[in-house]
Write the structure tokens for this entry.
Amino acid sequence: MTSQPDTSQPDISQPAPTGAETPRRALPMRRPLSFVRRSNRLKPSYQRTWDAALGKELLEIPHGERDTSVAEGFRIDWAAEFGRSAPIVVEIGSGSGEAVAHAAAANPDTDFLAIEVYKPGAAQLVSRIRREQLSNVRVAVANAPEVLDQLFAPGEVAEVWIFFPDPWHKKKHNKRRLIDESFIDRVARVLPAGGVWRLATDWSGYAVQMRTLIGASARFKNPHAGERAGDASPLTEVRLHDLDAISMGKEPAPLELEQARDDDGGWAPRFPGRTQTDFETKALAVGRKIFDLTFIREP
Ligand SMILES: C[S@@+](CC[C@H](N)C(=O)[O-])C[C@H]1O[C@@H](n2cnc3c(N)ncnc32)[C@H](O)[C@@H]1O
């Protein structure tokens, strides 16, 4: 079902500028995509919903050279789009939108933008939004780094959520991971001081990468630094039994307690606003552990 990744894309490896004085800008550079291009074909019923929602719940985004890019100069006035001024939560990689739809229904005073490149997933979300008559969600089918750069002014987003980003767990694919230094700068730009970045992953290597990279950024603070360390850390448990290998049906190579012990911790408690998606349910069913992280934008 999957085709070869499109590598003819803008490189987004350069840090985006940050700070209240920083304007929006697009970065036409080269970097591997964090997603593999899959079939965009929709079932007829979803196609009908898609057509009806285009320009309404489904943002009509003019694309550049790729169908997932955002055309240079395209902007959205969010207050006009939602018909009000309310905090905006951006969920990146929404999949079929279980989490964002659930959160939008529970938080009618907050506006939500779901960003997803996979059209059939976005179509499911659009269908859900219409079925549940949620007026506070919009869907952007485009590459998330470009959406952040071009569609938001500095400090315009109250929270950024990324739950279960594609793990790209093979070493040779690690460079495709969405969360790297340049992406951290992008998120920092759109959040105001005190803004919140919530993440979750079921892949311990990616969890450590997030904890290390974002934790090292002067722009973010981990409000749970040092918490859930040692025996209380999910990382200790994963390493001790090599749960990642077991969950993939591979021969485990468990570590001795001394090497397995995660003395750093820093894991957040499960964010109560994050509903359990099918994706997480499947991960738990094969014995994977979930890592939650929260970071606060520093002034
Ligand atoms: C593993 S799925 C998780 C879906 C959902 N968050 C959940 O918990 O069920 C990751 C999603 O991120 C999307 N994605 C990956 N890179 C993206 C990007 N650069 N921009 C937008 N979506 C992206 C993928 O298409 C995929 O649907």
Summary: The pocket of S-adenosylmethionine is lined by residues 34-35, 92-95, 99, 115-118, 121, 143-144, 163-166, 178, 277, 279 (CB under 6 Å). The first strand starts at residue 88 and ends at 92.
